Amino acid sequence: MATKRAREDDSSSPSKKQKKGFSVGPANLPEGTYKRKVQKIKKDLIHKAKLRKEYAKIKAQEQSSELQRSVYDCEHDSADVKAREPQLEPTLEPHPDRRKLLEEPSPEPASNPSRQAERGKKRPRPQPYRNETKFAQKRREEAEAKRKAREEADKERARKRAERERFRKTIAKARGGGSNGQRKLGRESAVLLEKVKRLVGNA
Hints:
single chain; mainly alpha; 65% helix; rRNA-processing protein FYV7
């Protein structure tokens, strides 16, 4: 009996595994902005990968061509390049282009004096809280004036107190009498005269 031919779509035969492409983002995105964005990213990635492959191929070709060239060829090429270059002797004279620029008269810009004066002036800076600053300055001045007036009043009060004390002591000494118990009219008269002058001066 002849052997049975195996079916092509038989499950027992090992099937070829298909390569699954890479995925970007979730698979179940609805149609719309997000899906288009994901597709664009995927296309960009594929394009970049292709560019990298092409670049690698070109680089490999260049490297292989460089390896094929002999060392002697490289030396001859460099010698030819050196021979072709003209040897310029260094000189102290300026370059012809520079000399031409130096000889030409430079056009002077017309200066506008009014504009320069405007530039020179500085605009006053706007001061924030100007009114508050003035008010604070005024209050400081008032406080300083009050303090000075208070000091003057204290000095005047102390002077008057000292004068009264001196007057009282002088009167007490004059009324106290001397060794014989009589009042010292000379001393007392001077003090009383001073008191009268002060009273008349105040009136």
